[in-house]
């Protein structure tokens, strides 16, 4: 697919998902309680000083939750995949027929300080459980998406980059575990 067609396809995917999200769907499971934050009835997670300070600047107004999504539900042709870690109820959306993933914040494709593209985990202070988020990165990689759209940074259109990143991450995790058991 040429770059212009790819951009048009990504733009359409994002419009489809934006429409579905404004219908009042919560991207969380029922047991997490995170929908309370969406409705303005509880704190954004992780609940730390940086998030409390930052929410004043970047959080939008509360929005009523009309439906709580579960693993395997379908939204605008995308399957809901629970990928906790960034938040307890974080989800990504995956469409099988063209292998497009909307990954949200499980990964970013930008360096937050320099603005340069590149795969990055969310900073620890923006994740409820960084170790669980690393497991969710493996879930994303196992889907073998051709295109990945992120909450931060440009879409990834070179699938091998995700596979290499996930493999390197798994290798670091295994080494750390081996060292801890010595």
Describe the structure.
With 182 residues, the chain is an alpha/beta fold. The chain has helices at residues 3-21, 35-38, 49-58, 130-142, 159-180; strands spanning 25-26, 67-68, 74-75, 78-82, 91-95, 100-104, 147-150. It has one domain: Metallo-beta-lactamase, Chain A. The protein is globular, with a radius of gyration of 17 Å. The longest helix is centred in the C-terminal third of the chain and has 22 residues, at 159-180. Residues 16-33 have low confidence and may be disordered. It has a 5-stranded mixed beta sheet with strand order 3-4-5-6-7, with helices on one face. Strand 6 (100-104), helix 4 (130-142) and strand 7 form a beta-alpha-beta unit. The relative contact order is 0.13.
Concise description?
The chain is α/β, with parallel strands linked by helices.
List the main descriptive attributes of the protein structure presented here.
182 residues; alpha/beta; Metallo-beta-lactamase, Chain A; five-stranded mixed beta sheet; two-stranded parallel sheet; 5 helices
Choose one word for the global shape: globular
Q: Largest beta sheet, briefly? A: 5 strands, mixed
Beta content comes to 5-15%
Query: Helicity level, as a percent range?
Result: 25-40%
Architecture (CATH level 2) name = 4-Layer Sandwich
Alpha carbon gap, first and last residue: 49 Å
């Amino acid at each position: 697919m040429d770059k212009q067609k790819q951009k048009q396809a990504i733009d359409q995917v994002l419009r489809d998902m934006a429409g579905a999200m404004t219908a009042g769907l919560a991207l969380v499971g029922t047991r997490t309680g995170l929908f309370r934050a969406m409705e303005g009835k509880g704190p954004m997670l992780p609940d730390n000083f940086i998030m409390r300070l930052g929410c004043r600047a970047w959080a939008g107004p509360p929005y009523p939750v009309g439906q709580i999504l579960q693993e395997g539900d379908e939204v605008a042709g995308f399957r809901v995949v629970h990928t906790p870690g960034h938040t307890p109820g974080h989800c990504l959306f995956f469409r099988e027929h063209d292998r497009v993933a909307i990954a949200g914040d499980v990964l970013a494709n930008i360096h937050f300080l320099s603005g340069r593209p590149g795969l990055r985990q969310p900073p620890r202070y923006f994740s409820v459980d960084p170790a669980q988020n690393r497991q969710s990165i493996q879930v994303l990689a196992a889907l073998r998406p051709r295109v990945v759209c992120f909450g931060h940074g440009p879409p990834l259109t070179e699938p091998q980059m995700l596979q290499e990143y996930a493999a390197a991450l798994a290798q670091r995790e295994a080494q750390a575990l081996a060292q801890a058991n010595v």
